[in-house]
Amino acid sequence: MSVSVTTFREAGMGKNRLEAFSDGVLAIIITIMVLEMKVPHGDTLQALRPLLPVFLSYVLSFVYLGIYWNNHHHMLHTAEKVGGAVLWANLHLLFWLSLVPFVTGWMGENHFTAAPTALYGVVLLMAAVSYFVLQHAIIAAQGQDSVLKAAIGSDWKGKLSVVAYAMAIPASFWSPAIGWAIYVLVALLWLVPDRRIERVLGNQVVP
Amino acid sequence: MSVSVTTFREAGMGKNRLEAFSDGVLAIIITIMVLEMKVPHGDTLQALRPLLPVFLSYVLSFVYLGIYWNNHHHMLHTAEKVGGAVLWANLHLLFWLSLVPFVTGWMGENHFTAAPTALYGVVLLMAAVSYFVLQHAIIAAQGQDSVLKAAIGSDWKGKLSVVAYAMAIPASFWSPAIGWAIYVLVALLWLVPDRRIERVLGNQVVP
Amino acid sequence: MSVSVTTFREAGMGKNRLEAFSDGVLAIIITIMVLEMKVPHGDTLQALRPLLPVFLSYVLSFVYLGIYWNNHHHMLHTAEKVGGAVLWANLHLLFWLSLVPFVTGWMGENHFTAAPTALYGVVLLMAAVSYFVLQHAIIAAQGQDSVLKAAIGSDWKGKLSVVAYAMAIPASFWSPAIGWAIYVLVALLWLVPDRRIERVLGNQVVP
Amino acid sequence: MSVSVTTFREAGMGKNRLEAFSDGVLAIIITIMVLEMKVPHGDTLQALRPLLPVFLSYVLSFVYLGIYWNNHHHMLHTAEKVGGAVLWANLHLLFWLSLVPFVTGWMGENHFTAAPTALYGVVLLMAAVSYFVLQHAIIAAQGQDSVLKAAIGSDWKGKLSVVAYAMAIPASFWSPAIGWAIYVLVALLWLVPDRRIERVLGNQVVP
Question: Based on C-alpha coordinates, what's the Rg of chain B?
Fold first, then answer.
């Protein structure tokens, strides 16, 4: 019994702190974005109109960060061992996500024009790539019979997202509307939580 | 025994991370609101006078966020299983609560005029509705013998709040004072913690 | 055994989340204070000189928030049961502490003049009073043989602090220097961690 | 058995909260730095050019804070007992790290000129020294057979970093480029996670 508690503690400690730190960073990123919506000077509903594009870009980024938190949550749940490579791959992902408030503000304040829309795609692309890297670092740390490896399978969603972002970046310079459409469609694709992992875990109660 | 610890870990993990993330977001929301109180330039007590409405709206929003944290805490305590639907319903609630600092600042800086007071009600209404959705998602995840379902009973407080907010929004355009009065009264109604859940849990020591 | 794990989980859950939320709020308060130190425009060391009073007030507030976190940590450690009264008493304490960045910025930017120095004392006084209220709520929740009640004893430090703050507020209008001197002395008094609780807990390893 | 769970809870509680608070503060510091990158007014890629030095200084500070979080994580993992001295030594480290966003912003906005580059080194130096102090406080709390003491060995990396920072500060006034080169080299030196501790812990699964 004493062994069992010890194992629980040692196996869980590193992972718990990784999750706690990631939760903290994601919670702050998702919340400081709202600071970009500056309180308007007038007190009429018309005074809010210029904030509409900022609000819409906030909604889109909130959904994206929610998707990352959700999938990160599922992915880490399958991990039993985390080491230095996983810690740094995780920080790398958080770095790109920390740039989301900046590109969200730039896109919203410029009413979704070309360059800001393209840069938004660059940050989404880098975040998606760093998510891949993290996924592989976790699988490498778990060894042969990784639950995560079985769960992600062909990972078509992840691959399709990267291709979509890579297309949205040049397309935004031609017509920003194509860029936004792609970002919204990819977000909708991911709004369905990662059932792949839930399916493999089978009758376990965990999300 | 080993089974017991495993069950604890798997059942609790997802919920713990959901709670930790929610705590993080709520802690940030409740704290960044204070940034709306800009340090005044003068160094006399008179220099603070223009900040009084901002301070009062801060107090009201602090109490509302405290109520949400408190009730969220009680509600999640009854949950044993959380899945994708609960995670997204929770993010939906956090989205509306994340708009509280914005509407608090707008209402405070405009000295509680009509449109800002009404918009404050819109955000409270949407937060209350999303709390309902979260409650039902948790009950659905627990199955037939949900503790939460038994605990909330008719949920008259939740239903009354939604009706009150829906009345306060148009009333604020007629007279903002009616809007504020309703928000304060609903807050007082909820300041009593959710005894319904404590009663059902009976002699358990949990809050 | 199964009972034992269940008890651990139920007794600890509420308290853990109370601690996590408090840690989050205190971590944010202590960190956003540094945002009051605006990056100066010049790039010489002389450009930093106007920031010195802001920096000094930041150091003082950092120490005070550190003291509160530290004592809060010790106090909650002794608690085994938390209920609605404790949750709200804790939020009340966090409310007053959330005003620390505002009064710190006001005092620092006005180079420690009378009214800002007095208001700083008002916030410290209210925080100290709300800490008392929280302490009594926790003791009331534990029942007769409360470890905390035995640990705090006469609580001379807490009582002396309240008297000192109450004296510093009017004294600041006469001479702000007396106000600062009192705040620094009280901080030094508390820098020694709450050995009273460590002593009563005896040979336990906890801090 | 009941004893075992009790011990787990008492030994772990203080440490867990210390880690949670540190994670919170580090997560906020690492995230609010991005607020220094103000959204530019133009919507062209050229409008981003003035932000490049701010971005580069953000990357450097993100890496440094990642290193501190990573090493802090390893170091605390080895600790079994934490007391008042460890709590305050930890707050002292967090104080110096909380100044990183300020010096990062000052260095970035002034395009890496002499005084800001030197002050950046002062904050890194003080953080390194306070990390030493924390390390010794933890070793002192563990007693003779400290895992951490065996793990750090001669601690050549820590000592070399302090010497490097101490050299970078005066060198920055002569040529800021030498300062930046030293900060980048020391960061690269630490990017390798603290294998010393992992090696001593041997076949344990912890990071």
Answer: 19
